[in-house]
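Quick question about two entries, pasted in order.
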Amino acid sequence: MRITRNSLLKNQHSGAHATQEHLPLSYFLLVFVLSIPFWLIGGNKLPLPMRLPASSFMWVNPLLAATLLTFRAEGRDRVKSLLKKAVDYRKIRGSAWYLAMLLVMPFIYFASYGIMRAVELPLPKTVKFPAYRAPLLFLMFFLPAMSEELGWSGYAIDPLQRRWNALKASIVVGVVWQIWHIVPDLQAEHSPSWIAWHSLYSVALRVLIVWNYNNSGKSVFAAALVHTMDNVSWSLFPNDGSHLDPRVTAVVAWIAAAAVIAGWGPKTLAHYRYARANR
């Protein structure tokens, strides 16, 4: 049997594709294994107004796991390609998507605050809204968000989207993402009900992140911007996030996610169906 160069390349390509289809499970497991030391020693609070536990530094692990698996399977050059995704902002076309990346999450928290006031849920008598902190918070949270998104978006989401669709892939990554956060949430002394509602919120947030990612040419930079703005927004919620009610934010975030699903479709979250209808 004669094996041509083209057939060999075709087999190599199909084999690589099959490997990619099975990578996320190994990736998820490795992220959790790498995080165990952080969970074991990370119960102390960081010297920040938000009182985050030290285990929050596990944000390095999504990138570390992606780097290790990429290097093992495909070598150093592919690791460089993965890391270059951190500056892939040139994929983003049009300022409208920058507005979505930067403003959707603040809007969700602003709407949540308005709802809490309207229905008289507990809020501090003296509301601190130090907007001047926003640039500093952005700089503080951007690196952790980018490290996570190089893993969740730059490595894990596309094989899942190829296997299922954008919505199902978003939900899978969102569920894994939130399970990964349960130990730090407990160390931050949140109640089980708080964690349950926040888990629902996190899955909706992942849908919104993937929506921005897919509509920006699959830009990891775009995903990191949304992730960063979420962290900035809850940190500015009165007071230093202490009165955040995840029941409200989960409902508001899922309303936003439902609008995205209805408008852009669950298959890709990237084809605005009403624009097609108008044309």
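Here is the second entry:
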Amino acid sequence: MYSYETLSEAIAGLQKRGFTTDFNLAENGIVFKDTTLNHDDFEIVEYYRFEGDTDPADEAVVYAIESAHGVKGILVNGYGISSDGLTNKMAEKLKIHH
């Protein structure tokens, strides 16, 4: 795994390495454009945690994700993944790497 000092450095580094799709969290998977990938359709290949020095709201996890179809991208999510709005399987998939 690579080492990054900041959230923006991690995003830039991952993008340079081909993780260019911007994923967003959905109830049962992740979405980009008009496509939804269910929890079984992608793998988290790397993840990086960042803690805010002064503000807990700055805490985040960056996930480098690759789909079964070869789409590579990034999901940025705050700490404290809640199962609210997520299926149990999706919450567990993220929690393993959190």
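Reply: The two ends are 15 Å apart (CA to CA). Residues 62 and 76 are 5 Å apart (CA to CA). Hope that helps.
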